[in-house]
Amino acid sequence: SVLVAACGSGSESSDEAPSPADVESVDTPAGLTRVSPTDAAATIDGAGDGLIILDVRTEEEFVEARIDGATMIDFYRADFRDALAELDPDASYVLYCRSGNRSGQALEIMRELGFSDVQDVNGGIVSWVDAGLPVVDG
Prior knowledge:
The protein is α/β, with parallel strands linked by helices. It contains six helices and five strands; from the N terminus they run αβαβαβαβαβα. The protein has helices spanning 20-25, 37-46, 59-64, 80-85, 101-112, 124-130, and strands spanning 32-35, 51-55, 71-72, 92-96, 118-121. A five-stranded parallel β-sheet has the order 1-5-4-2-3.
């Protein structure tokens, strides 16, 4: 397979290179990534007991359908950031929401909080179901 990465064209970005101090102050752990539903499922299948599946949807959405074994923290809680801060930043996580919007924002918060191993399911549970992967309800 081919991996293509781009950082924008020079005509649309600053001509100045960042100073070394700026580069060093940016903390972007390689372990925080957006992955396909099938890659996330493989991570879940291959994980031991330490993996945490984190659903950041509402209680209603969670009850309707969720990835088996998921823990829910509602993104819309007033104390959502504090709830994330109580989690173990060194644990491994698979993170998802309905379509990828809330989990993408949660991923950024987790990055800011120092989490080091988080896979965000690209497209959320919608793409998980579209990929034919199992969910539980109730």
